[in-house]
Write a structure and sequence with these properties.
Length: about 240
């Protein structure tokens, strides 16, 4: 593990609108970086935990809440969170795409407070527009440092599974941007033809101990704003969205 032959495709956070979400920015995920720089603010307020923490939600469902989620499906979808966060979405897929393995987000963020939460959710957007979480990444901004020798890199040298150093806090200077590597727990999802992939940045769920604040995300230009996604052999995300990589 990961599956032999897995490669990681970088998808860049682009300010171009048209992702089909009702978020503050409705951005797009593109195969090529954008030369246009932008700074996007969002309030990292507490989010709906059943939608933004798929791991704990799965445990809760297994303990008996599955019936509740079947009657009230919006509880496990990101629809209610869209107006409070930022989103980036791919075009509709023209073929099935399997993703298996760890993923990572490289992003530059400034916060109004010395400590803030960075909470990202990867979702499978169905043709009806509903967004279903398949993986989440979380990092407190006071832990920006990494242990390089324990982090996983692909054959191109990209850090595809960052290993965060939690031994010492390093508080951020309010208003000053710095770079973060956010680890996603491994994905295992088949994105079907006609579906889209969407990345959310929202507040941390109440299952955790949130540190609310206002975050400012830098994308485009020289900002390292990209999502690294695991593709087993035989899966071509660029071809599926009609892009050149």
């Amino acid at each position: 593990y990961p599956i032999p032959g897995t490669r990681w495709q970088a998808m860049h956070l682009n300010a171009a609108r048209g992702g089909g979400a009702r978020s503050l920015n409705d951005g797009t995920l593109t195969a090529q970086p954008s030369a246009t720089a932008a700074t996007l603010p969002y309030a990292a307020v507490t989010s709906l935990p059943t939608a933004t923490d798929p791991y704990t939600t799965a445990v809760v469902a297994g303990a008996g809440a599955k019936t509740v989620f079947e009657y009230f499906p919006f509880l496990t979808q990101l629809t209610l969170m869209e107006p409070l966060g930022l989103t980036w979405t791919t075009p509709a897929l023209t073929r099935d795409i399997l993703m298996v393995g760890p993923a990572a987000l490289e992003v530059r963020i400034a916060s109004v407070l010395p400590e803030a939460d960075i909470h990202a959710v990867i979702t499978d957007v169905w043709p009806d527009g509903s967004a279903h979480p398949v993986s989440a990444g979380r990092l407190r901004s006071s832990y920006p440092n990494l242990i390089e020798e324990k982090s996983r890199h692909d054959t191109q040298g990209n850090m595809v599974q960052p290993y965060t150093d939690y031994s010492t806090k390093s508080y951020a200077t309010p208003g000053v941007a710095r770079d973060y590597h956010v680890e996603f727990w491994p994905i295992g999802n088949l994105f079907q033809t006609g579906h889209r992939l969407r990345l959310y940045l929202v507040g941390a769920p109440t299952y955790s101990v949130p540190a609310p604040g206002i975050n400012l995300v830098s994308i485009g230009g020289d900002a390292p704003a990209r999502l690294l996604l695991p593709l087993p052999p035989g899966n071509d995300l660029c071809a599926a969205i009609g892009a050149s990589c």
